[in-house]
Specification:
Elements: H1 7-16, H2 22-26, H3 39-46, E1 60-64, H4 66-69, H5 80-85, H6 87-93, E2 97-100, H7 128-140, E3 144-149, H8 159-164, E4 178-179, E5 205-208, E6 213-216, H9 231-246, E7 251-254, H10 300-312, E8 324-327, H11 334-339, E9 351-352, H12 355-358, H13 365-377, E10 385-387, H14 396-400, H15 406-419, E11 423-427, H16 448-453, H17 495-499, H18 505-518, H19 520-524, E12 526-530, E13 537-543, E14 550-555, E15 561-563, E16 574-579, E17 592-594, E18 599-604
Parallel strand pairs: 1-2, 1-11, 2-3, 3-7, 7-8, 8-9, 10-11
Antiparallel strand pairs: 4-6, 5-6, 12-13, 13-14, 14-18, 15-17, 16-18
Helix pairs in contact: 9-10, 15-18
The chain binds 1-deoxynojirimycin.
Length: about 600
């Protein structure tokens, strides 16, 4: 993995590794019951065609980190009204849905992933009325709004935890995971119940003096884990989801879902050893554990079936348009990912994230070919959700770039993303080539893991910098002081500059998304790998009955390559659909010339 520190690195080393065509374009946006408070959505619902049910199968989903997207009130922090103001941009790009990372009330220890009230909007981001307006305005543009559902833990400031920690007999005591320490006596707290560690460093157990027990937290101390063995916790989350579904949200991304359960025996996890038999030490100075007792435990599947059924109730009858369930599913292999779709008749996720492909983290053509083949052969024909980037990992430049061809490399990756079968998820700013800009001094770090892990782990600020809209001061993100500094390259890498440049990355993303939506083979064709012994150029076909077959060829090297492809029944002629700026027009299927990291996409005649 790339030397840059990240949550993914932690998770990976923790052994997790951690529409069609016109139908989609016509699909209605948010659908919601015809209740008085949901009038705008109710109107859209009436216009929803049957294909709205299928929207997610070829969806283009855009992740927004609300804090960093667009500030509307000058406080330096992005907000919901800022997002609403940028909806036309998202429509122009062609996205079907936006996933908002949490904007609920939060003490912001983990910038929103520590929620203190699941049914409100944090005042920093706006009000419930702003949220409703965002949903309604997005719906008018056929864009669905997906929320982040954080079920593994709440904030320690949540009323549930405040109650829980108040006394051992409190009704909420059993909503969290409490245990005595090892060797604990009336006067001595002993030591934590076992060796389990937080992903954010050090013991996962925190002593609480009031009731003299330890509570478990897989993430920050301020993020106590909820106890999913308690049926009341299940009911609470179904109620929360219904609250938002009734407001018209298009679904959820379930956070940290693989860590919902812990092994009930609560025995120690194993210590990962290096090849010489010495313990591997992580960025926080702790021995690396194997994560076998605290991650991907069997309980997650029945819970997901239950949560999916609860969400599905809002996808039927009076609620046309599937509400989608996306999973943050860092898993060790494709087999485990396949399970996340659920057994026959008991669906779990619509779209568990395929981090197998996302976290290859180098331009390794063999790995891409093999993992993209797995997607076609090992997930039971379900719809894959490909992605490369999010708010927890260094951006594409640091994980895949070579510092020379970064933009061309991003064309290759975005081609894999949008020209493969299934749904595609990308992160704000990818479409303009925003780069990771980590803090250079510890005192500037905002993400607490960067403070705990400095200098090995610099935290996640570098991939959360403000959206680069234009070349003005603070890149058009805010008229105030941005909460994280705007990267210096915003003067040239920005939306305004790229919109007026037909050779820009933005233009490339827009064209690819347009192809994904309008070309029948792209929209719902099969993926067939071609030329599978080629160690330089990745080529594949998209084939749909009754539609011209499309060939895609992407040069995975910094050297020019010529590729010769064979497609049974073709004349060898090609009609170019899209190619990297400046790339040669291929003479035929048997002679496609590609410069460094260039891409060709064309119809096979
Ligand atoms: C995964 C989220 O993506 C990350 O940002 C967060 O810190 C952890 N889950 C804990 O909620």
């Amino acid at each position: 993995m790339h030397p840059t520190n990240s949550l993914a690195r932690m998770i990976e080393s923790c052994a997790l590794a951690i529409l069609l065509g016109a139908g989609t374009l016509a699909a209605a946006g948010q659908s919601a019951p015809a209740k008085p408070e949901n009038k705008p959505q109710a109107k859209l619902q009436a216009a929803a065609p049957a294909s709205a049910r299928e929207w997610w199968k070829n969806a283009v989903i855009y992740e927004i980190y609300p804090r960093s997207f667009q500030d509307s009130n000058g406080d330096g922090i992005g907000d919901l009204n800022g997002i609403t103001a940028r909806l036309d941009y998202l429509k122009e790009l062609g996205v079907d849905a936006i996933w908002l990372t949490p904007c609920f009330p939060s003490p912001l220890v983990d910038f929103g992933y520590d929620i203190s009230d699941y049914k409100k909007i944090d005042p920093q981001y706006g009000t419930l009325a702003d949220f409703d307006r965002l949903v309604a305005e997005a719906g008018k543009r056929h864009i669905r709004v997906l929320m982040d559902m954080v079920m593994n833990h709440s904030s320690d400031k949540h009323e549930w935890f405040q109650q829980s920690r108040s006394s051992r007999s409190n009704a909420y005591r059993d909503w969290y995971v409490w245990r005595d320490g090892k060797g604990q006596t009336a006067t001595d707290k002993g030591v934590p119940p076992n060796n389990w560690q937080s992903y954010f460093g050090h013991s996962a157990w925190e002593w609480d003096e009031t009731t003299r027990q330890y509570y478990y937290h897989k993430f920050y101390i301020q993020q106590p884990d909820l106890n999913w063995n308690n049926p009341k916790v299940h009911e609470a989350f179904k109620d929360i989801m219904a609250f938002w579904l009734k407001r018209g949200v298009g679904g959820f991304r379930f956070d940290a879902i693989t860590t919902l359960y812990e092994d009930p025996a609560m025995t120690d996890e194993g210590i990962v050893k290096d090849k010489d038999g010495n313990p591997v030490i992580n960025a926080y100075g702790d021995p690396q554990l194997d994560d076998t007792k605290t991650n991907n435990q069997p309980g997650v599947h029945p819970v997901m079936q239950e949560m999916r059924a609860a969400v599905d109730k809002f996808s039927t009858g009076a609620y046309p348009g599937t509400r989608v369930v996306i999973g943050e599913t860092y898993l060790p292999n494709i087999g485990e990912l396949a399970k996340m779709y659920g057994p026959k008749g008991k669906p779990e996720f619509h779209l568990p994230m395929d981090t197998q492909v996302a976290m290859i983290n180098k331009m390794d053509i063999a790995a891409f070919r093999s993992k993209l083949t797995d997607v076609e052969t090992q997930i039971g024909g379900h719809v894959p959700l490909l992605l490369f980037d999010n708010h927890d990992n260094p951006r594409i430049d640091l994980r895949y770039g070579d510092g020379v061809h970064d933009e061309a490399i991003q064309r290759v990756l975005s081609t894999v993303l949008f020209a493969s079968r299934g749904a595609a998820l990308f992160y704000y700013g990818d479409e303009i080539g925003m780069k990771t800009t980590p803090p250079t001094r510890k005192e500037d770090v905002k993400d607490p893991i960067g403070i705990t892990g400095w200098p090995k782990e610099k935290g996640r600020d570098g991939e959360r910098t403000p959206m680069q809209w234009d070349a003005t001061a603070n890149s058009g993100f805010t008229r105030g002081t941005p909460w994280l500094p705007v990267p210096p390259n915003a003067t040239t890498v920005n939306v305004e500059a790229e919109k007026s440049d037909s050779a820009s990355l933005f233009a490339w993303y827009k064209s690819l998304i347009h192809l994904k939506k309008t070309n029948l083979a792209f929209a719902h064709g099969d993926n067939v790998m071609l030329d599978t012994d080629n160690s330089k150029v990745l080529s594949w076909l998209r084939k749909a009955p009754g539609a011209p077959t499309v060939v895609v060829a992407a040069n995975f090297t910094a050297d020019p390559q010529t590729v010769s492809l064979a497609v049974p029944g073709s004349t060898g002629k090609l009609k170019t659909l899209l190619k990297s700026p400046g790339a040669a027009e291929p003479a035929s299927l048997t002679s496609i010339e590609l410069g460094p990291f260039e891409v060709f996409i064309g119809e096979v005649k």
